[in-house]
Amino acid sequence: MAQVLAPRFAFTPKGRGSLPDFDCYPAGFAEGMVNISVNEERGQYHFEIAGLDESKAFLPDYERVVPQTPYSSRQRECPNPLSAGQTGYPPRRHHMSRPPLPPFTDATAAEKARLAEDGWNSRDPARVALAYTPDSQWRNRAEFISGRAEIEAFLTRKWTRELDYRLIKEVWAHSGNRIAVRFAYEYRDDSGNWFRAYGNENWEFDADGLMARRLANINEHPITEADRKFHWPLGRRPDDHPGLSHFGF
Description:
Elements: H1 2-5, E1 9-13, E2 23-24, E3 35-39, E4 44-49, H2 62-65, H3 106-122, H4 125-129, E5 132-140, E6 143-146, H5 147-161, E7 163-175, E8 178-188, E9 194-205, E10 211-223, H6 244-247
Parallel strand pairs: 1-4, 5-10
Antiparallel strand pairs: 2-3, 3-4, 5-6, 7-8, 8-9, 9-10
């Protein structure tokens, strides 16, 4: 009964150190930022938060909930995974799931493509990068990109250069954990010149629905403003807006 009633979460300011019998997620340690540790046996979590006011801390008395050995004999420091030669990312079982998950059906493949389109139309590099595995591998045109940090940096450069960006994706084929899509997007540069790009992408997903591999071939050409086809307000394409097949792209 004690385990069932044990508080599940603890919040402490940065610098308090880890709680007894709690292990850090490999990605949880970041100097001066947020640490996350877990006691999997009891289903309890500890968040060490930089800048948290002491008056806001919440630290249940775990010593009273579950009898334990003296604190000093079981204190566990959260190692910096990068200095330890680790990847810095949590094991697969701690991934955030991104449904729909493979294997894909016609319906879930189309949903996955639409979610990807919506993300890219947000033009938010940090948000988009979270749809990919931490070590996701890209080939975008002739540029090779590895991992979320490089993905976010690439997208930041892209949307700094490609203004008023609007994108449509459409599934071409799918099988198992792979989806092939075609897409088109329009944008202007900072001189007011408009362009339309056409491309094909091959996607491969892990079991959690995160994209592990992206291969993209893209061609583009200048257009006049009068030739533009995508006019919806910046952001998500409205549900009643035509797709690629309507335009013959």
